[in-house]
Design brief:
The protein has 213 residues and is α/β, with parallel strands linked by helices. 24% of the residues lie in helices and 23% in strands.
């Protein structure tokens, strides 16, 4: 009788093992319910904030809680270029191409935001030549703010001015205008210096001037 009982038990265990191998008893979740075991359930990862839309409040001086904290340090800091309306500035693409270690597309990594105002063009002179077309000299002005993304605090603001070089007594016949808008590189250098070493105190009032062709 004992031998019969032992054989029955061993045969049953063999059948269960074969069933598990061939999937006869369903998924491991079903088996865990049958045998009272518990599976470890992972909590779903929190959804990432949408880039760059979630950063728009910082362009208006409001905090972005999802952003990364900022501390002055002599190292690259993740920063983003936005327009005054909170939308992505065209310079953001140039930023990614030239300074990738300062660039990110994750709101949770952004420390600083450069808010770039509109570029203004001003005709300062029209130089007239006798045997050549006139040459127009243009000045370009722009203002930018450096904002701490997480708090919305404005760390610095600065005006930039590109002044045209003087017209020569003779210019190339194809030259009809002198001057160019303020460049990404000029504003980035200003923002990076402050990000690394902090804003000057007192803040300078004069614009950063560049003489351009």
């Amino acid at each position: 009788m004992k031998a019969f009982l032992i054989c029955s038990i061993l045969g049953g265990l063999g059948f269960v093992a074969m069933g598990l191998h061939q999937g006869l008893f369903g998924s491991s979740r079903t088996l865990s319910k049958l045998f009272g075991t518990h599976e470890e359930v992972k909590a779903p990862e929190p959804a990432r904030a949408k880039f760059p839309q979630a950063l728009a409040p910082a362009a208006h001086g409001k905090p972005v809680p999802e952003a990364a904290p900022y501390e002055i340090a002599d190292r690259p800091h993740k920063l983003v270029f936005l327009k005054t309306n909170g939308r992505e500035h065209p310079w953001q693409e140039e930023h990614a191409n030239h300074n990738g270690d300062w660039c990110t597309t994750k709101v949770e990594e952004v420390e600083l935001i450069v808010v770039v105002g509109p570029s203004r063009e001003l005709l300062v002179e029209q130089k007239v030549y006798h045997n050549a077309p006139p040459v127009d000299r243009y000045q370009y002005d722009l203002e930018a703010w450096l904002v701490e993304a997480k708090t919305g605090a404005v760390l610095a603001r600065r005006k930039f001015q590109n002044r045209p070089r003087l017209a020569r007594s003779r210019e190339d016949f194809a030259t009809t205008r002198i001057g160019a808008p303020v460049s990404y590189h000029t504003v980035f250098r200003w923002a990076a210096e402050i990000a690394r070493h902090g804003a000057p105190n007192p803040p300078p009032l004069e614009p950063i001037v560049t003489i351009v062709d």
